[in-house]
Q: What sequence folds into this?
């Protein structure tokens, strides 16, 4: 029987490529080109499966152009690049890569919180620019982290990881808001108290966003929500661009409506709203929350295992549209 054909849509860990080559005829994108939808459709001709990274849009138009496609394995926990209904309609299995990145991403959420609250990048730029001439009592005085109130919006696995770090490692008072409340056992494990979104925004010293991007979650944080936050508060987004109204956030940062923000994701990334680039009190990173060598390899391997399972006639390990 001839081997199944798969496409790897972007450059990924070579160990994962080698693993896939044991199972399939593999087409790679060694140049790591970001293909347009038309280029992706052209590359997908005759392919049974594709490994995507989370940036490639899988919608009805693409699926209509690629009737042979059976499975799309996202190397990301988020799958807002999938039109899940269109995939179900076309009989194309979608999979994502949860769990393997939970702790790594929670680590980064905390790193961004710390860097933002304690003004790490802002002070480093000042030093590198040769502006440091003397010690001053209020030089880059930031916000307290230990013992402060941590508000988490979106209490899935990554949110819970951040809650545990805050409560157990930093003695923070953790409040959370989520579509559904956690079980009493999980709340106890995370030392987290469920509150309304309004209460969280009003009372948290640090607000961390870890919710999935959906149409309902578009601009969960906009001008009205920023106005509810304390002027000393920080906002951290490691979820998805589009959950925050970046223009409203830049305005709030400029106006001192909140103290600072840490952003790993952006509306329309890799473009960043120009106003955000001009405010000093924001830490900006290029969507790297899951980026450790081991975790990116594990994410690729889980996506690869999903391709092997589905194209081998088995159930997917981590399906998104069944
Ligand atoms: C994810 O897995 O969804 C992360 O954002 C990495 O892309």
A:
């Amino acid at each position: 029987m001839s081997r199944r054909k798969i496409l790897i849509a972007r450059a990924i860990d070579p160990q994962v490529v080698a693993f896939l080559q044991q199972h399939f005829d593999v087409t790679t994108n060694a140049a790591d080109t970001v293909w347009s939808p038309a280029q992706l459709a052209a590359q997908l001709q005759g392919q049974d499966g594709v490994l995507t990274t989370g940036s490639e849009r899988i919608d009805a138009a693409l699926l209509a152009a690629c009737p042979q496609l059976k499975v799309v394995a996202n190397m990301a926990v988020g799958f807002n690049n999938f039109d899940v209904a269109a995939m179900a309609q076309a009989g194309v299995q979608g999979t994502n890569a949860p769990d393997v990145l939970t702790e790594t991403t929670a680590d980064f959420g905390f790193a961004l919180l710390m860097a933002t609250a304690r003004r790490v990048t802002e002070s480093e730029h000042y030093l590198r620019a040769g502006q440091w001439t003397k010690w001053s009592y209020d030089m880059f005085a930031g916000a307290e982290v230990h013992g402060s109130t941590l508000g988490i919006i979106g209490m899935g696995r990554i949110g819970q990881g951040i809650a545990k770090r805050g409560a157990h490692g930093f003695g923070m008072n953790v409040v959370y808001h989520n579509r559904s409340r956690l079980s009493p056992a999980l709340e106890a494990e995370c030392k987290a108290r469920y509150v309304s979104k309004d209460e969280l925004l009003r009372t948290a010293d640090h607000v961390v966003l870890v919710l999935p991007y959906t149409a309902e979650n578009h601009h969960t944080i906009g001008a009205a929500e920023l106005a509810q936050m304390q002027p000393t508060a920080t906002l951290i987004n490691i979820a998805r661009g589009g959950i925050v109204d970046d223009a409203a956030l830049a305005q709030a940062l400029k106006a001192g409506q909140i103290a600072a923000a840490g952003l790993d994701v952006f509306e329309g990334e890799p473009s960043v709203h120009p106003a955000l680039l001009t405010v000093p009190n924001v830490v900006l990173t290029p969507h790297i929350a899951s980026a450790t060598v081991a975790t990116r390899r594990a994410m690729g391997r889980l996506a690869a295992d999903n391709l092997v399972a589905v194209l081998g006639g088995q159930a997917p390990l981590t399906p998104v549209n069944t």
The chain has 13 helices and twelve strands. The pocket of (2R)-2,3-dihydroxypropanoic acid is lined by residues 54, 76-78, 101, 290 (CB under 6 Å). The longest strand covers residues 149-153. The chain has two domains: 5-98+293-311, 102-284.
